């Protein structure tokens, strides 16, 4: 009986332990499956591309014919995607709706023509600025090259200095050639000082300008030696003078007749509505003509419909490449910083800021800026 009891008891205990072990394994398996499902869902959500709102504003964001996006802002997003190991997809968005769509979570971020400002910062967060710019003014070149401009150029100290640099050697060479030729060649270089020296000036001038009428020519050895020296020296002097005059002319053209924001009040001004430039013009009490985009506004300026087009300076610099009759005025105002638009209290903001600063410090970013804005400061 003891043996029989012992056998039954042992079997019962063994079965009980086996059942308990099976329940524990089943419990762990079931619990692991529930625990794993949310993790998989979380990983899937984390791997989903972030929707980033964009709007075509050269040179920050532009769209190619095949639908692909490129530009300064897109290159920044590519750099952040590599640094943060995060995928993104660009969603075309109206600039007026960017902040609202980021605020309600429709977009995970946005990059566009919305400068960092206190009003929007109350409902969303801006990142570190990736670009600092200002508002610029585009004007017509023909308005600059008028009679007044030409008079100012011809009476400027730089022009008078270059004129003296040219005429001074002409007088010296003219007098020397008369001294050498007046006795052996009196028919061409008269012995009388007044007429003879003037003939020397005439010869030196036509020789320097390579006109070479041939009505006067030295016949003495020393006279011809001086003529050879003057021919070579005149070529170098004319080249230097021409280069200096061209540089002075270019510099004068680049100096705009619009020297202050007050000058905009008396002009027909155009801009893009709801842009930062439009806000600045409203503060200045300047009522502009509104155009849907930059290209349309620049076409209106080139056709004479307006006197100046006011917009983001970097965008103007890019757009003016296609308009030879327009140029960017020296006036710029309203310093503006541009950053990414993120949801309020976004936990990734700190990591994004670090990635932006790291990108801006790289030599590659400097090359990118020079590619889109070769003459613009960083």
Verbal overview:
It is elongated, with a radius of gyration of 39 Å. The strands form four sheets. The chain has a five-stranded mixed β-sheet, with helices on both faces. The protein has a three-stranded parallel β-sheet with strand order 4-1-5, with helices on both faces. The chain is built from 14 helices and twelve strands. The termini are far apart. The protein has 378 residues and is α/β, with parallel strands linked by helices. The longest helix has 46 residues, at 2-47. Mean pLDDT is 80; it is low at 1-14 and 19-46. Among the domains are: 49-130 and 339-378, Periplasmic binding protein-like II (D-Maltodextrin-Binding Protein, domain 2), CATH 3.40.190; 148-254, Orthogonal Bundle (Helix Hairpins), CATH 1.10.287.70. Helix 2 (72-84) crosses helix 13 (349-360), helix 7 crosses helix 8 (193-208) and helix 7 runs antiparallel to helix 9. It has helices spanning 2-47, 72-84, 95-103, 118-121, 141-144, 147-154, 157-181, 193-208, 221-254, 276-283, 294-302, 313-319, 349-360, 363-372; strands spanning 50-54, 62-63, 69-70, 88-92, 109-111, 124-126, 131-140, 269-271, 289-290, 308-312, 326-338, 341-343.
